[in-house]
From TrEMBL:
<dbReference type="InterPro" id="IPR024036">
    <property type="entry name" value="tRNA-dHydroUridine_Synthase_C"/>
</dbReference>
<keyword id="KW-0819">tRNA processing</keyword>
<feature type="binding site">
    <location>
        <position position="72"/>
    </location>
    <ligand>
        <name>FMN</name>
    </ligand>
</feature>
<keyword id="KW-0694">RNA-binding</keyword>
<dbReference type="InterPro" id="IPR013785">
    <property type="entry name" value="Aldolase_TIM"/>
</dbReference>
<keyword id="KW-0820">tRNA-binding</keyword>
<comment type="similarity">
    <text>Belongs to the dus family.</text>
</comment>
<keyword id="KW-0560">Oxidoreductase</keyword>
<dbReference type="InterPro" id="IPR035587">
    <property type="entry name" value="DUS-like_FMN-bd"/>
</dbReference>
<dbReference type="GO" id="GO:0017150">
    <property type="term" value="F:tRNA dihydrouridine synthase activity"/>
</dbReference>
<dbReference type="Pfam" id="PF01207">
    <property type="entry name" value="Dus"/>
</dbReference>
<feature type="binding site">
    <location>
        <position position="171"/>
    </location>
    <ligand>
        <name>FMN</name>
    </ligand>
</feature>
<feature type="binding site">
    <location>
        <begin position="228"/>
        <end position="229"/>
    </location>
    <ligand>
        <name>FMN</name>
    </ligand>
</feature>
<feature type="domain" description="DUS-like FMN-binding">
    <location>
        <begin position="15"/>
        <end position="308"/>
    </location>
</feature>
<dbReference type="InterPro" id="IPR004652">
    <property type="entry name" value="DusB-like"/>
</dbReference>
<keyword id="KW-0547">Nucleotide-binding</keyword>
<protein>
    <recommendedName>
        <fullName>tRNA-dihydrouridine synthase</fullName>
        <ecNumber>1.3.1.-</ecNumber>
    </recommendedName>
</protein>
Amino acid sequence: MAKIGNIDVGDFPLLLAPMEDVSDPPFRALCKEQGADVVYTEFISSEGLIRDAAKSVMKLDIYEKERPVGIQIFGAVLESMLRSIEIVEASGPDIIDINFGCPVKKVVSKGAGAGILKDIDLMVSLTEAMVKHTNLPITVKTRLGWDHDSIKIVEVAERLQDVGCKAISIHGRTRAQLYKGNADWAPIADVKNNQRMHIPVFGNGDVDTPERAMEMRDKYGLDGAMIGRASIGYPWFFREVKHFFETGTHCAPPTMTERVEAAKRHLQMSIDWKGEKLGVFETRRHYTNYFKGIPDFKQYRMKMVTSDESVDVFAAFDEVLEKFGDFQFS
Ligand SMILES: Cc1cc2nc3c(=O)[nH]c(=O)nc-3n(C[C@H](O)[C@H](O)[C@H](O)COP(=O)(O)O)c2cc1C
């Protein structure tokens, strides 16, 4: 059984990765329904929060049904991080996660995200200060290192644990790799195999089939799998992994009716949450995956992604159901 602080997250939990513009409340709700054990918000700027930037503050919204939920923040300035913890706490998350892995230049150049991998002492002292500043469990998400020549993740993880970090999720790439090449899970297993480690070590990067999730559990011996891209527009990935763990077989892919239902609920929840315009616009990215595999789908997809009116998008969903209701997904 893995535990994040006092929160029991089950045996080999599946965690929905924090993903900018993806891991919002509607998407998290769908993933939770399909078996995600822990969900995270996208990263939220500590500087944005303390300036009360509306965009950052909106990202703090969480719903009861998604618990346990972690709010992820990033930054490199101690005062801002501490002040933002107080703001985050007011939203009532179960976990506060620190992003020490974002490779994007505008984040890294400020020493935040993966930028902090160049200054491990700062990474540790920031974490320690944050742990002391809240009663909520602080967790860390990071990468293997800055680049191939500076991988010290075993030592880094141990130091983070020693200052009170309650779990660590490790993406098996360096900052230099961005998303290139394959994620390497061996160094993550080294972290887990360190006899001194007692907090959960979650693996991340390229878990894109149930078999890969099983490999992460059985071959690499990690405590859980954090899943990102495989879930985008496909929240059923979580149930597929769970079914595979339970039975050793693959469950049937979601039917067209299920897909249309999910797409409709996703859109409706997005509209309820952020209004018609943004709801319609920001849900678009998911549709390609919801309906992946249907031949000659482009004209229908275009209907879903070109109108600014939800009524048109809902009508396009109904049309797809009528036209392809019997389509067999493989
Ligand atoms: C669209 C997108 C947005 C992301 N945003 C974040 C983020 O806000 N915070 C974070 O820690 N990682 C972020 N990531 C990285 C993912 O959490 C994850 O580490 C990475 O995608 C590797 O896992 P995967 O192979 O399962 O996708 C993002 C990834 C993607 C694809």
